[in-house]
Amino acid sequence: IAEPHAISYASGLATENIVPVVPIYSTFMQRAYDHIMHDILLQGLPIVLCMDRAGLVGPDGPTHHGVFDISMLNSLPDIVITAPKDGNELRDLLYTGITSARSFSIRYPKESCEIYNASEEVSLINIGEWEYLSKGSGIAILAVGSMVKKCQEILDNEILSNATLVNARFIKPLDLKMLEEIKQNHKYVFTFEEGSEIGGFGSNVLSYYSKSSSNMKIFTKGITDKFIQHGTRSELLEIAGLDEGGILKFIEDNINKYEKEN
């Protein structure tokens, strides 16, 4: 296990006009935190970090859950943090990262890929650009990576019949244009991520809206401030409240509570 060496070696390659792609489990990328900061970011080197097993990994247990990569990288300047919604988007983000001349990271889960078309033309994605999957008003859901499909599957619920669903594939930088659009006709914003709530994507959204004149209520959902133990991936998502039922309950409970209090 030599993650720090892998990052330092990759940074050396990057100084010689090579764009290294470095795949490391999310949980073990933590071991190379200092090297990411000093060997890559301070030097402004183009490198793609692929963080496999991001989120809850099931029976591998708490040492292998990749729930801290977002909060670990979030405070570091000049890094792009992304999460694809499916296999096609993973390929496009990888292509985007390689051609971006930026320090670029991609997180993806230990999960089967249901959507991947090997014959489809690869596409560049504008850095920081999100994607509307449904466009409505009242309730906006900003979903990251593995949470996109979970949120799509509950849109037929009555409370979400006119909800906006966004594929927030860029965790950093945020899509500020879309955040401003959402302000125009939404009362509630919900963020969902398979990562630590502290320092995560939701906290970025909260921070942005706290500095603007917005009357929206913002609710963030991720992994709470505790270690998640062993279990199947589906069991652990249910425990964390990040399965379809837990996501829907979180939305309904918070709206009902706010409406009662106001």
Outline of the structure:
With 262 residues, the protein is an alpha/beta fold. It has helices at 3-14, 26-29, 33-41, 69-74, 87-99, 147-152, 176-185, 201-210, 233-240, 244-261, and strands spanning 21-25, 47-52, 79-82, 103-107, 131-134, 138-143, 164-167, 170-172, 186-196, 217-223. The strands form 2 sheets. It has a 5-stranded mixed beta sheet with strand order 1-2-4-3-8, sandwiched between helices. It has a 5-stranded mixed beta sheet with strand order 5-7-6-9-10, sandwiched between helices.
Descriptive report:
This protein has about 260 residues and is α/β, with parallel strands linked by helices. The chain has 10 helices and 10 strands. It has a 5-stranded mixed beta sheet, sandwiched between helices. The protein has a 5-stranded mixed beta sheet with strand order 5-7-6-9-10, with helices on both faces. α1 (about 5-15) packs parallel to α3 (about 35-40). It starts with a helix and ends with a helix. About 35% of the residues are buried.
Biggest beta sheet attributes: 5 strands, mixed
Q: Low-confidence stretches at least 5 residues in length (pLDDT < 50)? A: none
N/C terminus separation: 54 Å
- Biggest sheet, strands in spatial order? 1-2-4-3-8
Order of helices and strands: HEHHEHEHEEEHEEHEHEHH
Count of helix runs: 10
Topology:
Layout (H helix, E strand, L loop, with lengths): L2 H12 L6 E5 H4 L3 H9 L5 E6 L16 H6 L4 E4 L4 H13 L3 E5 L23 E4 L3 E6 L3 H6 L11 E4 L2 E3 L3 H10 E11 L4 H10 L6 E7 L9 H8 L3 H18 L1
Parallel strand pairs: 1-2, 2-4, 3-4, 6-7, 6-9, 9-10
Antiparallel strand pairs: 3-8, 5-7
